[in-house]
Amino acid sequence: xxxxxxxxxxxxxTTPSTAExxxxxxxxxxxxxxxxxxxxxxxxxxxxxxPFALAAGLSGANAPSSLILTAGLAEVAAGAISxxxxxxxxxxxxxxxxxxxxxxxxxxxxxxxxIEAAEIGEILAQYGLEPHExxxxxxxxxxxxxxxxxxxxxxxxxxxxxxxxxxxxxALTIALSYVVGGLVPLLPYVFIPIAQKAMLTSIGVTLAAxxxxxxxxxxxxxxxxxxSAVQTAFIGALAxxxxxxxxxxxxxx
Amino acid sequence: xxxxxxxxxxxxxTTPSTAExxxxxxxxxxxxxxxxxxxxxxxxxxxxxxPFALAAGLSGANAPSSLILTAGLAEVAAGAISxxxxxxxxxxxxxxxxxxxxxxxxxxxxxxxxIEAAEIGEILAQYGLEPHExxxxxxxxxxxxxxxxxxxxxxxxxxxxxxxxxxxxxALTIALSYVVGGLVPLLPYVFIPIAQKAMLTSIGVTLAAxxxxxxxxxxxxxxxxxxSAVQTAFIGALAxxxxxxxxxxxxxx
Lengths: 253, 253
Description:
2 copies of one chain form a homodimer. Chain A has one domain (35-252). Chain A is built from 9 helices and no strands. Chain A is mostly helical. Chains A and B meet through helix 1, helix 2, helix 3, helix 4 and helix 5 of A and helix 1, helix 2, helix 3, helix 4 and helix 5 of B. Chains A, B: Belongs to the CCC1 family.
């Protein structure tokens, strides 16, 4: 869900060399470990929230622990597949889409080079550049078809070259993380047969987990960690209140 | 979940004028209606999948329709809030992040202009451009701080200026769409008290809805609609099989 976000080091940047700065700032330098971490945070946050809320809601409807576990674990299984497989297929579609756009740009560069060259000009003109200022760039690109293609993919279409292995890795990471996240609020119901008691423990551990993950998420996305922690916990709390209220409402009809 | 995707007209492009082509291709020309549609597709697809799977799973565990409705509607309430509020807060954080990065770039342009100017060069050098080819661009940008700032935000950091109203609109759209999507598989359980019978109707209407929405999603994202329809329905089917199996498993312990 969270789109591309850049890295910060403790919320500020030092004054490094140009190369260092580019290394920190440049979005293209994806650290694979960082993307795995992001997927874990995404999956666990979602897994913590809805299974927790569902379990709390059913406790409110006086369901026994066994039923809460049935519903909760079924939801975790469904949610993990929906997120994991859904994410994988979406990433594959994106990769296919990228390849189709790449082919089209390649063709256009060969068949209608003047139009494509004019497009470079249009892109740079948006930054107040005059033709005499950008025409050296246009000419250089015209003589370097590979670079020209890369330039159009990035600056005209805004498309990044996807990594085929990442789609599968990302899907598996998110799905597994969702399962781990979902187990946190549900495990109390395994060990505590009286649902209302289990719910109290579930609330306790889940809120703690939400605060922790929200904090970590904030650090990695460059947002204020405390604020992120509170927001993450608040979403979980509100979702469970809504589930609780809905369950009570349906039970009363 | 689905990142930025570009528009196609019936899967191919005609050979239009340069301006038209830029209009169709350029990611910056977001049509607001298109973004609303995308949010609807996102919310409904998710809403169709997990509530459906949960209901099917609980039917498999021989739960009565009333309980399936309780769990299903509680999940829809929790899921809508998790997606809606979660999405809204994520968008707000992104907007805050953008403003912080904007301020930082602004400062850097003022305090360390030579480093920033060198960065423009580094970005363009990646496309095989020589200093004598890109220095007119660098000089022009140095004399136009606003354009320089825009250029760095887009080409160095890859950040788009977020629209503040969109965050709220997007969240509400996704949440409402999730509710609508979730109601489709659950309504049969309102009218058909015998869960196993209701489940058959639920499977029928939900599969039809998944195929339809998958098809529409394919058209809007520029992927093959039939393929998209089958994939969307497949995810729903697999998620419900997993939920069903999990529910049976938990019930048997």
